[in-house]
Design brief:
Layout: H1 2-24, H2 26-31, H3 42-62, E1 86-90, E2 96-98, H4 108-121, E3 127-131, H5 137-149, E4 155-157
Parallel strand pairs: 1-3, 3-4
Antiparallel strand pairs: 1-2
Helix pairs in contact: 4-5
């Protein structure tokens, strides 16, 4: 029995010395955890790329409405050499009139049918919407939608030059 205790103590001392030697060796120090003062941004970049792809795919699906070519600052008046434009007037009450005929108000369906007829007869006709400043925005948009459903690609908006009040 004395012999087994002796073996136990010898093996314990040897293992303790080996552990101590391993802790003091240079390899053990190199393998220790070193605190890094940097943030790992790779997961954030992955999330941002996924979100960007989602927005790029869904953004074209969200656009709807009437295509409007916005006026430029250096807009020039319509030349008199062009054909007579097809003008839809919207008065302050939201009633629709065609060209200079202020007596007969028309419906959106009438606008659509007459615009389609003019477009097939003269495809280079200019289509304009002239809305009163106090009219509801929805009335002007409805006129533009009626022209678009008739096949008109470009619809212009008639405005007044602020310098010529």
């Amino acid at each position: 029995m004395n012999h087994s205790w002796k073996n136990f103590w010898v093996s314990w001392i040897v293992s303790t010395l080996q552990l101590h030697r391993m802790k003091t060796s240079s390899n053990y120090r190199k393998r220790r955890f070193v605190q890094v003062n940097e943030i790992n941004v790779v997961p954030y970049i992955d999330v941002m790329l996924v979100l960007m792809v989602i927005f790029m795919v869904t953004a074209p699906l969200l656009t709807e409405g009437v295509n409007v070519e916005l006026p430029k600052a250096s807009a020039k008046p319509i030349s008199s050499q062009q054909t007579i434009p097809f003008v839809v007037h919207v008065n302050a009450e939201g009633q629709y009139y065609l060209n200079q005929n202020n007596q007969d108000n028309v419906t959106l369906r009438d606008i659509q049918l007459k615009a389609a007829a003019v477009l097939t007869a003269k495809p280079d006709t200019l289509f304009l919407v002239r809305g009163d400043a106090s009219v509801d925005f929805d009335s002007v948009i409805q006129a533009m939608v009626a022209l678009q459903s008739a096949g008109v690609d470009d619809v212009g908006l008639v405005t007044r030059n602020p310098q010529n009040n």
